[in-house]
């Protein structure tokens, strides 16, 4: 997750209470928080949904860095909702990569 520094404590509070919580590493200088969870498929999906939502509520954003291949259809890397600034990312992608050759099918802009 990428969060405003003042929101890191609230996000960490939520993250440590997610089923399957294993580890949290935060960098106060950059606002980056990494959370590791373990568990069965349903627990991982629920944890990802909860953490993505918590980051938004805290004024930040999050993405799922790693997930089993079998869960890719159930867990979107960037979540289900609109990302803040997605319109700008799309415009930049259209302008600088009109043919879609740079990082195809990667990131929130396809």
Compact overview of the structure:
The protein has 110 residues and is an alpha+beta fold.
Describe this structure in words.
This protein is an alpha+beta fold. The protein is 33% helix and 12% strand. The chain contains three helices and two strands. It has helices spanning 8-15, 41-57, 86-96, and strands at 21-27, 32-37. The chain has a two-stranded antiparallel ribbon. Strand 1 and strand 2 (32-37) form a beta hairpin. The longest helix is centred in the middle third of the chain and has 17 residues, at 41-57. The mean pLDDT is 87.
How much is the average pLDDT?
Answer: 87
> What is the approximate shape?
globular
The count of DSSP E runs of length 2 or more, i.e. the number of strands, is 2
Alpha-beta content class: alpha+beta
Identify the quaternary structure here.
Answer: single chain
Helix content: 25-40%
Q: Number of helix segments? A: 3
What low-confidence regions span 5 or more consecutive residues with pLDDT below 50?
Answer: none
Based on the model shown, name its key terms.
12% strand; 110 residues; two-stranded antiparallel ribbon; alpha+beta
Which helices and strands, and how do they pair?
Blueprint lengths: L7 H8 L5 E7 L4 E6 L3 H17 L28 H11 L14
